[in-house]
Description:
Layout: E1 2-9, H1 11-14, H2 20-38, E2 40-49, H3 54-64, E3 73-77, H4 89-97, E4 101-106, H5 112-120, E5 126-129, H6 137-146, E6 150-152, H7 154-159, H8 171-177, E7 181-183, H9 188-191, H10 195-206, H11 210-222, H12 228-239
Parallel strand pairs: 1-2, 2-3, 3-4, 4-5, 5-6, 6-7
Amino acid sequence: MSLALARFSSCVFCAISVKPKTVVEGITQALEKAKNELGISSFLIMCFLRHLSEADAFETLQESLPFKDKILGVGLDSSEVGHPPSKFERVFAACEKEGYKIVAHAGEEGDSSYIWEAIHLLHVNRIDHGIRCDEDATLVEFLIEKQIPLTVCPLSNVKLRAVSSMREHNIINLLHKGVLVTINSDDPAYFGGYINENYEAVVDSLHVSQEELKRLAQNSFKASFLSDARKQHFIEKIALL
C-alpha cells in the first residue's frame, strides 16, 4: 500500500462557484477507486487560498462542515509573500475547534518568520515546504526538538525560484541536522515533477545514499496522519529494504 494526500482549495468554492458537494463527492469517489483498484490510501485536506480574504476562508470553512467526515484537515496555500499566516489566525482557531488537522505553506517564498507564525498562531501539525527555516538557527533547533514535519517539494522550489538550483537545495543538510524533512510533489501537472521525479532529482543533484533515501521515505510516514500502528508498519517495512 502506498500513501497519497489529496488537496482541494477554496478557489473552487469562492472563485469559480462549484458547489462543495460536487467537489467533495467527486474527489472522494476517485480516491475510493484508487484505494480499491490500486491500494492507495489517502486523506483530504481542504486548503484556503491566502491571496483571498479572511472572510472567504470563513465562508469556505462553513461550507465544508457538512462534509467533515470526508475532510481530515485544513491548510493554507497560494503565494506567501504579503499574506502571512497571521492573516488567518482566527480562521484556523475555528478550524481547530472543529477538530481539523492543521497544515500550512510557510517558509518557501516567505521568510522564516512565516514558519514561526504558522507554529505559534495557527498551531500547525505540519509545515508545507519550510525550507527557509535555515535562516534561523533557533527555529531549526525547535523543529528538531518538536519533530514538526516539513513536506518539502524540491522541484517546485526550483520552479518558483525559492532555490536557485537543485544542487543548492538544503533538504539533505536539514535531514543531517535531524529535521523531519520529507520529499513530495507540488501540483505536478502545473510545476512539473511527480513524486518519483522529485526523488530522482534529489538523488541526481545531491548524491544521497541508500540509507538517506530510506530515512526520507520513513520520514514521510512519520509525517503522515496515519495511525501510529500503520506508521510503524511502513517504517519497519522500509528498514528491511
